[in-house]
Design brief:
- It is built from six helices and five strands.
- By secondary structure, it is of the alpha/beta class.
């Protein structure tokens, strides 16, 4: 007799999707981490220090995150450098930017800009962007709004 696994069994066997969150505001970082973990996402949350590029953060980051969320602060050209480093280091990863002033970020950005979520939209807007990005990764399980 042939047995087949159900879709729910396959999901249960898959590891949770991995999201790296790098944000200078610890309260935003903590809330985002908690909210994503409640939805079944594994989160590596980091608060960067001034001048600490990807090289300094690399040992704390997961090997292959599906999504990286980078919170940007002025001066935007300096903090945007970290986002560019993430794009180069993890080409298969979706990088999502958050910033209090998205217009200032886009004004100084050269080349295609990753998805940019205004922080004025609240935590829900950032979580929705992460869930949407995860749904595009074939390796990720289905992440629901209230899972």
């Amino acid at each position: 007799m042939m047995h087949s696994r159900s879709l729910s069994t396959d999901r249960a066997l898959r590891p949770p999707p991995v999201v790296a969150v790098i944000h200078p505001d610890e309260s935003i970082l903590d809330l985002l981490q908690l909210t994503l973990e409640q939805r079944g996402v594994s989160v590596a949350a980091l608060v960067p220090t001034a001048g600490q590029g990807l090289l300094g953060l690399r040992r704390f980051l997961p090997l292959t995150p599906e999504v990286c969320v980078a919170g940007l602060r002025p001066p935007y050209p300096a903090s945007a450098g970290l986002a560019r480093e993430l794009q180069r280091a993890f080409p298969a990863c979706t990088v999502i930017l958050t910033a209090p002033d998205p217009a200032a970020v886009t004004a100084g950005w050269a080349g295609p800009i990753p998805p940019l979520v205004p922080e004025a939209g609240g935590l829900d807007a950032t979580v929705a962007a992460v869930v949407t990005a995860l749904s595009r990764h074939a390796s990720c399980m289905s992440i629901g709004a209230n899972s």
